[in-house]
Amino acid sequence: MTKLFIGVDGGGTKTLTVVIDEQGNELGRHHSGGSNHHSVGEELAREAIFEGIKETVKKAGGSLSDVARVCLGISGIDRPEDQVLVGTWMNDILPSVTYDVSNDAVIALASGTMGKLYGCVIISGTGCIAYGFNRQGKSTRSAGWGPLLGDEGAGYQVGFDMLKAIVSAKDETRPKTLMTDKVLTQLCMKSEDELITWAYDPKNQGWQKFAQLAPIATECALAGDVAAQQVLDKNVQAMVEYIQSVFVKLGLDKESESVPLVLAGGNIERECLYSNQLKASIAKILPNAKPVFPSCDSGKGAALLALEKYKSASTAEK
Amino acid sequence: MTKLFIGVDGGGTKTLTVVIDEQGNELGRHHSGGSNHHSVGEELAREAIFEGIKETVKKAGGSLSDVARVCLGISGIDRPEDQVLVGTWMNDILPSVTYDVSNDAVIALASGTMGKLYGCVIISGTGCIAYGFNRQGKSTRSAGWGPLLGDEGAGYQVGFDMLKAIVSAKDETRPKTLMTDKVLTQLCMKSEDELITWAYDPKNQGWQKFAQLAPIATECALAGDVAAQQVLDKNVQAMVEYIQSVFVKLGLDKESESVPLVLAGGNIERECLYSNQLKASIAKILPNAKPVFPSCDSGKGAALLALEKYKSASTAEK
C-alpha cells in the first residue's frame, strides 16, 4: 500500500478532509461537521476530525497504519492550549504519526504553491488576512484583526463601506449611487431607514450578512458607478498594503526571482474585477510578486503540505 | 401661582426633568430612572416620567394644574407608535396639557438657542447626528445611523479609527503612534493582540467601550502624534459634511444673518481640540454659521422649548 497523506480544512460549521498518495494524487475526500471546538465543543470537533480521517483512509483503500503524515488547518486554533488539545486528539487516533496544526491562512497558501510554504497569501472572504513565509521559514501576517479593528479588503468591510455610501447619499453628503437600489432590493426594503433595524437586529447578528453585500459593489462598479468603484479602490489599496508589509517584513521584496502571491477567498476569485484590480496594483508596487490562484481547495492544500513536510523530513534524515 | 413649563430629557438609564417659570427661571429639577421604554419596559418608563413631573412641580411649590406645557425629548422614541404610547402616559397624568415629544437632537438644539427651534445642532457623544430647523419649521437630519452604517464624528468611530491606526502600526502598514501605549495602558493590556479578545468579548458588548477611548486621540494629537491628528481630521471633516448638508437642505446657508450652530455632546465641549478644529473648518465653509455651546443642559433646553411653544401658540391666538 502507498503511503497516505491527509489534509484537514476545519471550520466552525464544516470540515473537509482530503487524502493523497506520495505522488500528490487525490485518493478521496470527506465532508464532516465543524471542527472548531470554540464553535461546536470539544466532543463534536474531535469526532469531525476522526470521521474525516477514517472515511478518507477507507476511500483510499488503506488503513490508519498507512498514514504517513497529517496537516490540519483549523479556524480558531490560535492559542498554544488549542494546539495541545488537537495534539491529544491526534495521539488518540494516530499515535505514531507526525502532524502539524496550522491556521487557515497557511493551508490556503499551500493550495496555491502545491504544498510549499514560501511566498504570501492574501485571503479576502468574510474576513481578510495576508500571511507569508520566506525561504528561512520565518512567517508573518498583516490584518486578520476582525471587523471592528480593521481588515479592509474583507467582505464585511466592503459591505460596511457600501452601506456608508448608501446612507451618505441619503443624507446628501455624497452623490447618489446605484448601490442603493440594488442593496435595498436584495434586502427587500423600501427605504434606507430600514437598514438600521437590519444592521442592529439582535436576532440576526454576525458579520456574514454584511459580507454578502460585497458582490453588488463589483456589479455596480462594472456599470460605471463612481461610489462603488471608490469602495473597491479603497479595499484593494488596503490589501496591497497588507501584502507589501508581509513582503517587506520577510525580505520577499528583495528576492531576485518571482515570489508566489496566492489570491484566495470568495471575493478575489479568478478574473473578477476585484482580483484584476488587485493584480494591477501589485504589479506596480511589488514587481517580483507572481499572483497565482489556488490550484486546489485548502483541504488538498493541507494534504500537499503534509506530503511536502514528509519529503523535507526524509531528505533531512538522509 | 406662576405657570410652569416642564422639560424632560429621557434616556435608557436616566431621566432629567426640569421645571421653569414663564420668565425662564429654573424652579427645580429631578433625576429619575430610564424612560426609554425599549430599554426599561413601559411600566418603568411611564413611572420615571410621572415621578419627574410630580417631583419638579412639588419643588416649584405648585401643583399639576399649574403646568402650562411639557416638552419631552426621549431617546428611542422615533416611530409613530412610540409617540402614541407617550401620549397615553401624558393623558393619564396631565390630561388637559399640551405636550410635544421630540428626539434627543431637538432638545439639544434648544439647549443652545434658549428654546428656539432654528438653526442646526451637531451632537458628538457616543454617536453622532446633525439636526436642524429653518424659519419655516422644516427639519432635517444627517448621520445618526449608528456605528455599523457610518456616523463618523461619533465617539465610537473615533475609537474604531484609533484602534485601526494601532493595529496598522503593529502590522507595519502605518507609522507607529503614541496611541498604542496610551490605549494599551488604559485597557491594562500587554500587547495589541489582546485587543481582539476585548473588542469581540460577548460579555462586554456595546459601543460605549470604543467611545471611551476617544479622549486619548485628542491627548496624542496635542502631543504631536500624526496618526492621532489624522483620526481627528477625518472625523471633524465628516461632521462638517453633516452640518453642511443640513444647512443646504434647509436653505440655512443662504440666510443673510447668522444661523446658530449648537455644538453638543461630550466630544466637542468648549475649548477642546476637537471642537476648535470643527469651528475652524466650519468658518471656512459656512461663514454664516455661528457656533455656540449649549447654555444649559438638554433637560432645561426641553423646558425652554415648552415655554417658547407656549408663547408662540399664545401669540398665534391673539
Task: Provide an overview of this structure.
Chains A, B: Pfam families: BcrAD_BadFG. Chains A, B: One of its GO terms (molecular function) is N-acetylglucosamine kinase activity. Chains A, B: It is an enzyme of class 2 (transferase). 2 copies of one chain form a homodimer. Chain A has 12 helices and 10 strands. Chain A has 318 residues and is α/β, with parallel strands linked by helices. The first copy, chain A, has a 5-stranded mixed β-sheet with strand order 3-2-1-4-5, with helices on both faces. A 5-stranded mixed β-sheet of chain A has the order 8-7-6-9-10, with helices on both faces. The longest helix of chain A is centred in the last third of the chain and has 25 residues. The model of chain A has no long low-confidence stretch (mean pLDDT 94).
Please specify the SSE layout and strand pairing.
The structure is a homodimer of 318-residue chains.
Chain A: E1 4-10, E2 14-20, E3 26-33, H1 37-40, H2 42-59, E4 67-74, H3 80-93, E5 98-102, H4 104-110, E6 119-124, E7 128-133, E8 139-143, H5 155-171, H6 179-186, H7 194-200, H8 208-211, H9 214-222, H10 226-250, E9 259-264, H11 273-285, E10 289-292, H12 298-317
Helix pairs in contact in A: 4-12, 5-10, 9-10, 10-11
EC number (chains A, B): 2.7.1.59
Enzyme class (chains A, B): transferase
GO molecular function, one term (chains A, B): N-acetylglucosamine kinase activity
Q: Average pLDDT value of chain A? A: 94
What CATH architecture of the largest domain in chain A do you see? 2-Layer Sandwich
The strands making up the biggest β-sheet of chain A line up spatially as: 3-2-1-4-5
The backbone outline of chain A, from C-alpha atoms, is globular
Q: What's the number of helices of chain A?
A: 12
Q: Remind me, CATH topology of the largest domain in chain A?
A: Nucleotidyltransferase, domain 5
